[in-house]
Amino acid sequence: MNFYTKIKNALLDIIFPIECVGCKKSKTFLCDDCLLTIPVRIDHSCSVCKKRPTPYGQVCLDCLGQSPLDGLLVTSSYKNSLLSKTIHLYKYRFIQKLSRPLSQLMLHTIIQSEIPLPDMLCPIPLHPLRNRWRGFNQADLLAQTLSTKILPQLTIPITHGLIRTRFTQPQMSVSDIRQRHDNIRNAFKWLPLPSEEMSLQGKYIWLIDDVATTTFTLTECASVLKKNGAKKVFGIVLAR
Length: 240
Fold this sequence. Notes:
CATH topology: Rossmann fold
Strand content: 5-15%
Order of helices and strands: HHEHHEHHEHEEHE
Low-confidence stretches: none
CATH architecture: 3-Layer(aba) Sandwich
Distance between the termini: 30 Å
CATH class: Alpha Beta
Mean pLDDT: 91
Oligomer: single chain
Shape: globular
Number of domains: 1
């Protein structure tokens, strides 16, 4: 955490006192009792047609080949007011500590779904300008917890080889569905870091993000990963 991020966090603590977004209990941004009230999905459906029930949100037989994304596991609904408020605080008021309870929600859904474990996790990247402004990548913090908590004594590697090459508008700020697609098209590139030395060839990868709406971002990223050798790409998100 750099000096400016520390100053920003200190100012935010003064302007926005630490209290639960649900019950206003002090000294926590989301208490355990309120966390338990957020419903997590047990039943999942095809990520393309969103109609046919499928295990852990994988693409159904009728939709095979229509998307580079092989499935989408959704933790909960963005229509849940407590969850949507919490995600907003996490991303736009820079409350990094909320990554802990939010990743717990994701873990619960992952464990209940019995989805096959991946070879690596890939958080959806931010553009460097937005990353510097926010001070952290919310998807990366979620991935860090998932990496070590899915199974005891097992750490799933995280790759940061997927990069965002264009500074785009946040997808949720673009209302027109066609403009959303244009906004994110060709915005990502696979450029593995020398320190990682990771190959995508034949790998099963989870793309980690907070919110999926049209899934254009996840689909665009999945396309890049598959063009560089990935065998299967699944999206794992907090809300849709």
